[in-house]
Model the fold of this input.
Amino acid sequence: MKAPSMALLRAFAPITHSQTLPWTARGCLAQQQKSNFSTTEQRQARDKNRGPKKDPRITQIRYHLYHPLTPRPLRFSRNRALRHWTIHRAWQRYLDEQRKQTERTLERQYNAMSAACEALRLVDAHGLTADERTKIGESNTKEEGRLYRIAMLKTGVWDKVPIEYGRIQTETPPRKGWNHEWTR
Amino acid sequence: MNAGQQSARRIASQNALSRDTVCISCRHRLASHASRRHASAATAAVAEEPPRTQTNPSNPPVTATGPKKAFQLKCSPVLSRPPVITRELTSFEKAFFLYQKRLNERLALPFTRYFYTKKETPGDIEWKRKRSLRRGTAARDIGAYNAYDDEKWNDEVLVGSKLGDPEDITERLILDAEGKDITEGEPQGDAETGGETISGDARAGEGSQKPVAEVNVERPASRITEADEQNDVKSLNRKLDRSLYLLVQNKDGQWRFPEDRVYGRENLHQAAERILLQAGGINMNTWVLANHPIGHYVNAFKSPILSKILPNRLVRTSRELEQEEYGEKVFFLKSRILAGQADLSQNEYKDKDFSWLAKEEVEKVVSKHYWSQIRNMLTER
Done:
């Protein structure tokens, strides 16, 4: 007797069916979802005996920082509000002015630096540019831009940064003052 | 040394090393190597020299075709001391900060006393003693202003009050730490005191209880130092909130940053470090920030100067040369002083004097032409 065909069973059996899931979803079967999708805190049931023990410090802070007037309203009269607005605008103008001055100083310094680098680039070992050479009547040039090429190297520029350079400005000077007696 | 160097050059010119196939720096290194070997047996070298120079007349002297025309190529380290303390606040800033503090007082919660001190502890008793005088204000830097009483609207300070000054705040904090009364700089009276100053009032209670022991709180050092008062331009303790630059008076009497020629094969960074050593002595802890210049100064002489440059003893590759100089080009390198002081006793450039000056003082001592080219690279503060 001929055995019945398994083709139908293979097509509709649950085992084989799960294999036909897209490969991206196969991980879902291996590891079931346990955590919530939401990031909000899970509330405990309202039973005092069941919940986790609260930190007494947190209780204290919550107790002391409670005030019926929070957040406090800041109420200004009409003139007072106008005065506040004026002060605010004056402060913004002042900050603008400061920022502008800082930027200008930095710009001046940057321009001085780039001009110096450009001048260094054009200079040869005798301190002459091509223009000056023709003007003075010097024909031969030597090592034009050598100092510039060396100056542009950035190798090891961060190697010897002294630790004292990290000192920040303070409101009052150190008690001992500057160390004039330092010797090598 | 001189004889050794010459013989070294002669050796270099005789053999294949003098051809263009060898680069200049390699040739220099080999040449100086040979010179060192000769220096150890100097007498022998001198003894055998004369016959060889006669056999080699093809070595032309440098000045055979007249002196080389050139500009003086100089390097100049701009040695500066960065500001040590923060800048002085403007009156507007002081007033604005105080205004903001008082506004914050209006928005914040009231002082929660038992959060900071337990009942009947010394801190609590101290607070109780001071509370009435301070009108319940815990902060020491905003004066007697309570944002929770009926006078809360009155949060603006009278004209001429010293209330927001940093010195004033420091003073109050110290007085408070010593257990003393914080005296008001202005009358902060209200209806109860009849417009009188409320602090220092014996009836109010703060002065009635004497502290148990005399407490001496150490005061911060003054922002204005002794060097400021004497205007000692040699001291690095002067003008602590500004950058100070080292200027030297050279042998011609001109004030400039320390400067010298770039010798031989050295680069600007090496030159700057060498010049700091040769100008200011070894007892300065300095740091040259970068390899590139931050500014330059170009000056054309009225008539060319014929100058003979002797080799520098610290630069091995420098040689004696003579050139006709039409001007000078100075490249400034930024450097910082971290400790120590300049000392001109070992100065090799015959500098007469030095001083540490802020930007506007630099303008007063240097020449106009020099100033016009250095002003942009100096920082404002």
